[in-house]
Amino acid sequence: MAAVLDNSFKPLAFALFMLITIATMAISVYFSRRVRTAGHYYVAGGGVKWFVNGIAFAGDYLSAASFLGVAGMIAFSGFDGFMYGIGFLAGWIVALFLIAEPLRVMGKYTFADALVHKFKSKRVRLAAAISTLVVSVFYLIPQMVGAGTIVQPLIGLDYAWGVVIVGGIVILITATAGMVSTTWVQFIKGLLLLVAALGLTIAVLVLSGFGPLEFITHFLENGASNPSTGLFSHSGDVFLAPGIKFTNPLDYASLALALILGTAALPHILIRYYTVPKPSDARKSTVVAIIAIGAFYIMTLFLGLGANYFAGQGEFLINDSNLSAPTLANFAGGEVFFAIISSIAFATILGTVSGLIMAAAGAIAHDLYTEILGKKTNEKSALRVSKLTAVGVGVIAILLGIMAEGMNVAFLVGLAFAIAASANIPALICTLFWKGATEKGIVAGIFTGLVLSIVLIAISPTMMADPFFSLNNPGIVSIPAGFAVTIGVSLLDKKKQEVALATS
Amino acid sequence: MNHRILLPTNGSLPALVATKEAVRLAKEKGATLVILRVVEQDPAMYLEQVSEDVGLRGGTGVDGVIFAQALAGEAGVRTEIIEREGAVTGEIIRAAEESQVNMIVMGSSNPRGLAGLYLGSVAEAVTKRAKVSVYIVKPTEEDIELALKLAKTPLPTPEENALRSIIHSRKFKVGLGLFGIYGVLYTTFTVLGTFGRDVMATRIAGLNVGLIMGMTVILLAIIMAVSFNYYAVKVEKEGL
Questions:
Q1: CB–CB of B221 and A90 under 8 A?
Q2: How far is A182 from chain B (nearest CA, A)?
Q3: For chain A, how big is the Rg over CA atoms in Å?
Q4: pLDDT in tens, A311-323
């Protein structure tokens, strides 16, 4: 009889979960002993090797959004879910060819550093710090949702408890150790996640008895099921072409734009560029990340389709799209495999959350406290402020995570990408590649992108039954607006300066 | 006839003031500015340098050539750059003859109010030996303040220079080219997904256009990343 995952307490699963979580903590504590200065705390003293950093990128990135969200979206919406994976990877191409090396040359600790280096302005630093903080919080929400979703069947805890546990552990990690530990933690988890996805992909193909391409052909010929009912609801042609999720075609374009520009704008990704010693290392870690993440998204296609296939075969049902991959693991390898996969997913969420909280803590402690308020007392007090920030941001994320229960995590991440791309990409691109950018232009662009994208989300179909704005993802409007304002204000500003010079 | 002005500069304050004047003159006459930097090799010339540094508040830490280039660039004045090693006065005279300039513009190194320390002025020596007119700019306090201000604002930091050298490197341009190719494919993929959904659903070889394009976009990203890195490592090893 087909059934969904039950939420009972499972001793074996619980034991494995504890083991993986405690191992994570142990690594953090071990490396925390080496943290000495504020520089170490933020970015590992610039001494992390590029290969480790590259896999850690993947660990940071693949988190809940991909393993739970994209696989789930593919299981429920077919091609539209695959589109998320393609877009998530595309963002890395922007990072590799346009951002990685130039950014590594310009900055010290944070995204704001690079901008301030050029403009020597507190207002620019303030804008960048606020944007970092807001984007971090929005990106934290899906991570929390992923954590909450996965602890229910894993150890029989309530959704809210899962969120609280993740938040609590991460606050502990970041408040005690810092970036070194998160880099190593992310490295190990990135590796585990890749191995787990490979194992699950092989399991899908072996159990279904199809070759990889044959498996896809089978879907086209026989149609797809609805994994929550097990009934066949879509023809193969409909399921494996755009349109199930993106009923408004422009939503597809909007998401595509947000995803390709979003990656290079994420503060916890940007901050990782400073953990390697040289600009060329920044490039090499990006290449490692692209290989790992690209391979992962191809496997995700099989995880999602696999979940759909076996639900259609009557093996199980899925009541929450985020649980597609874990449910598939439970079917393919029993409770042990399910526990391992879920614990790894949980651990990656831990790592991603700590990376985000680090970025937010960096923005507050380094940019706001030390640089803007001018509290150049000593590194000790800056470190204390960043730890306090970590606690504060963690608590906010826990509350928002509890509120967002039941939403697909990949979708939520898509929104965070749109905000990041709207606020940070115009500033970043114009600072690095356009001599005409001025302080006022950058500040105006950051705030325009930030505010407009959030407002558009607030009046979108996601938040309102009777929306004012018909697209789910605001990217196609707010990203060009960010660029237009940055360039427009810069040009006006420059003209004004020239007039002032001429008359003086 | 093409007018040419020689500007010897060492980045000192009088030299910066002279630079401003030389650029103004060059613009007025539509002349080419020949910027000369002499690196001293002869230890006997050291005393001359000391006398200048003492009298003129020492070096400014400004690269005189870059400063002159930046100023000339802003004014739309053509420039040539000459770098020499040897005795300052002799090299200035030689450069003036070799590059056939019509005029030399340089800062006065006569330290005002410190006559006792005066050991000999390069400008004076050049005036005596040069075959063309020498315009010696005597900076006022105001000029010095202005030159200092100018020197402080437009010069890029080492990081900005590093950024510029990355952006203008061939490696980066190759990356941009690859990005362009990827961009075209990704845009096609996006446009078809938005407006050409029937095309995406068209079946090919047991799959459909959308899936094949999607896989291609992923695989192309990996192939590009690996081959770009291979190329970049090679370029970096050659030290280009």
A1: yes
A2: 25
A3: 22
A4: 888 888 888 888 8
